[in-house]
Structures are given as structure tokens and as C-alpha cells.
Design a protein that fits this description.
By secondary structure, this protein is an alpha+beta fold. It has two domains: about 80 residues, no CATH class; about 35 residues, no CATH class. It has two helices and seven strands. The strands form two sheets. A five-stranded antiparallel β-sheet has the order 1-2-3-6-7, with no helix packed on it. It is globular.
């Protein structure tokens, strides 16, 4: 099985453990952070009750104001995916693929950011 190919322009920032890793995206600086963070929650059992496995992908981007100082607020994207233990992996993968399809649409970025528009009938 192939693994996700981390883009060559990203830099691993050294903060990782078995359940989390973080990368600096091209353009990242101390004043304007730009990072992607991956985390996971593996399946666990507590007295025979299984947790839902989950993954999370977060993207943070900082900005400078007109005076060149870091803005207090950042842009952030947060995608969480969880599924019941024992569910159909093919159907769960279809959800991930659907996320990719939605975000690959060439008009989505402009609709969301420029127009603050969401799909309606």
C-alpha cells in the first residue's frame, strides 16, 4: 500500500510521536507560521467497549498586519474523520475521497473565501 507523499516543499519540523506529526509548508516563517499537522486516535478497548478510530488534519497559517506585526488570529482548517470499529473500510475511504473531490473543485476556494458562499440548491 502506498503512503501519502509529503510534498517536497514541506519540512518536517521534528515534533512527532506515534500519534502526531507536523510539517512546515513553504513560506513558513517564525512571524508567519504555516503548518500542517496530522494526528490520529487508534482503536482502543475499555472493558470490551471499543473507541472510534479517528484522524485529524489541521492547517494553520499566520499573517502580518500592515505594521509588519503578527496578527493575533490565524487562518485554520480542521478536518476530522472518525468511523465505528468494524465498519466497512471501503465506505470510509469513499468519504475521504469525497472530501478530496469537494476541495479539488476549481471554484470552491473563490466561493468560500471571496463570496463566503456555500452550495445551495
Amino acid at each position: 500500500m502506498a503512503d501519502f507523499a509529503v510534498p517536497g516543499t514541506w519540512t518536517f519540523d521534528g515534533s512527532a510521536n506515534a500519534n502526531q506529526s507536523q510539517y512546515r509548508v513553504s513560506g513558513h516563517t517564525a512571524m508567519e507560521p504555516y503548518v500542517v499537522q496530522f494526528s490520529r486516535k487508534p482503536l482502543t478497548s475499555n472493558n470490551g467497549v471499543f473507541s472510534k478510530p479517528a484522524v485529524r488534519v489541521r492547517i494553520y497559517r499566520g499573517y502580518l498586519d500592515a505594521a509588519g506585526k503578527p496578527m493575533a488570529q490565524k487562518c485554520d482548517a480542521d478536518i476530522n474523520i472518525s468511523w465505528p470499529a468494524g465498519s466497512d473500510a471501503t465506505k470510509n475511504k469513499a468519504v475521504v475521497t469525497l472530501i478530496g473531490t469537494i476541495f479539488a473543485d476549481v471554484n470552491l476556494a473563490s466561493d468560500l473565501i471571496d463570496d463566503l458562499d456555500i452550495p445551495l440548491q
